[in-house]
Amino acid sequence: MKNLPPKHQQIITLHAPFICQVVQLAQQPHNRAALATLLQQADTSGWSALVRAVRRIADGQRDTGALHGLDEEDRVIAEAILRGLQDPATLPDPNARPEPTLAAPGLAGMIQAAASGNVEALTLISNMAEQMSRAGGPMSRLAAVIRPLINGERDADKLCKGMNEQTRQLVLDILSELGRKQAH
Question: Which end of the chain is less packed: N or C, by CB atoms within 10 Å?
Fold first, then answer.
């Protein structure tokens, strides 16, 4: 994972439990039902394209043709699954936590996509916000500004009210990324 771009490392770290579980279940034919359940849950969460690719991979397709039609995030996840099936030493640590400073570009991209009506992005970021809210503390405060950001709120003082410095900086980084994306 060290040779991957930081954004790809962040995606893999964020989805490490899913990647590891898919690899584990796909390697053992008696776990097909459990794999099917896991993939059904992912499909229900809006990851249809990724699920189709993972099914092709689990059925034995190990070339990059299985990745056709995936967006960047899904492709990074599917590639990590392929690498993990070929060499389990490449699997990410399922207990690792994403680097907060690398989260802004990904969150900004999802916020922008959700704001433009992308249902998959809206579902994904809503699920993330729900998890952050359950975590409590600063993560809960960050979760509370996701919806306003999707709705177009860009007032940093309003969004960052009551946040600790680290969470405030993350929101400022997200705002910066959103501004950069809007300029292009």
Answer: C
Convert 7-30 to b/e letters by CB count within 10 Å (16 or more is b).
ebbbbbbbbbebbbbbbbbbeeee
Local structure of residue 98 (DSSP, 8 states): -
Summarize pLDDT for 75-127 with one digit per residue, the tens: 999 999 999 999 999 999 887 766 655 678 778 888 998 899 888 788 878 87
Contact status, residue 23 vs residue 57, Cβ threshold 8 Å:
no
- pTM, full prediction: 0.60
Place of tokens 């359940």: 37
Report yes or no: 93 and 16 within 8 Å, Cβ to Cβ: yes
- Per DSSP, 63 falls in state S
- List all residues 6 or more positions away from 97 whose beta carbon is below 8 Å from its beta carbon: 13
Q: Which residue has the tokens 């690792």?
A: 96
